[in-house]
Amino acid sequence: MSDWQWAGMMMGDEAYAGSRNFYHLEEAVQHHYGYKYVVPTHQGRGAENLLSRMLIKPGDFVPGNMYFTTTRLHQELAGGTFVDVIVPEAHDPVAEVPFKGNVDLNVLEKLIQRVGADLVPYVCVAATVNMAGGQPVSMANMREVRELTRRHGIRIFLDATRAVENAYFIQQREAGYRERGVADILKEFCSYSDGCTMSGKKDSLVNIGGWLALNDPALYEEASNLVVVYEGLHTYGGMAGRDMEAMARGIVESVQDDHIRARVGQVEYLGQKLIKAGVPVVRPIGGHAVYLDARAFYPQIVQDQFPAQTLAALLYEDSGVRAMERGIVSAGRDSDTGEHHYPALELVRLTIPRRVYTQAHMDVTAESVVAVYHERPSARGLRMVYEPRYLRFFQARFSPL
To answer: Which residues pair with 84 in a beta bridge?
Structure first.
């Protein structure tokens, strides 16, 4: 965090109700994201839990531009079924398409026609889609999704965790936005939705915390009541006052053009270094991470032997670089059949923490990836020796084959 954020931590108002830091957070969200109401949560999945419990009933279908792990689980626990409506290019790691996070409007329309609008509580749109390699959504696509859902009376909720990065890509890649600031683009992007969930550890530049934002006063009343059950009072929701202050200040800093240009630029630096070395990565380079294509790394390892998990383990063994599997382990199991989900992508995410690393750290990371890539013919897969019931990628354990 910045010195200004740390200074804010010293001004924490820890009153049980009505902490002044909550009102600073509320003001920052209203000003920069444009939503009317804010409910703090301990982190992003707390907001996902509230949203799912309020809006999803058993038998509902929740379309989204590729799943995210915690989001889908909360939807399923509420009785819903996730339906992927992302454009097909998102499943192709080498497709050089500027907005691979876009919603496929035809697929979404067909789903609504097939199941009926009453069984679609909302469309979940993720900004800079994590599981697709940090790929953004265009403003034009967001506007078209809004028009489609308005015709059917369906809400849109953003996963706005990395919406600032998405706004930066719109600025850089979409016609008509180059001269506009990221803060202005972000507010327009959010205006096409009815609310959002936020994990503050990402764009908001803090170590913990999140929030649910809403425009509907009735939903806000329900969320304010429900947050007391699962998080805390509606003016702190599981966060200390000092953490809300740090997040309020982080939001202000996150939308500064110089910050986000440097942030995404460092990721691009690592990505281009790996491309130059011939390492297979998802293209174009995403906003918060470089994604290694584990299928291309290890064609000899079948998906049931966890190629992406293998690559993450070998990277850590080589250099201590900690990466994240985004493949079959993260995809989990079908809740009805118990069988693995088999995603098209087997990726390893090299997430770059904000405002922490230097270019030298990127060089060390690249050297380790290249070293592991050169040893790829000798790699063998893994077997899972412990699997928790939910979100197995957090705690599962593996043994080499």
So the answer is: 64
pLDDT digit string, tens, across residues 320-339: 999 999 999 999 998 889 99
Could you report the per-residue pLDDT of 13-29, keeping only the tens digit for each?
999 999 999 999 999 99
Catalytic entry in 22, 33, 37, 68: 68
Q: Strand 289-293 relative to strand 347-351: parallel, antiparallel, unpaired? A: antiparallel
Provide the residue range defining the domain that includes 385. 257-400
Looking at the fold, whether 234 and 281 belong to one and the same domain comes out as no
Q: Is 203 a catalytic residue?
A: no
- Which SS3 state, helix, strand or coil, does residue 290 take? strand
Asked about 326 being catalytic, the answer comes back as yes
99 labelled catalytic: no
Joined tokens for residue 283: 């293209």
Q: Is-catalytic flag, 69?
A: yes
Tell me, yes or no, whether 93 and 218 share the same domain: yes
pTM over 0.90: yes
Q: Are both 225 and 239 inside the same structural domain?
A: yes
Whether 393 is catalytic:
yes
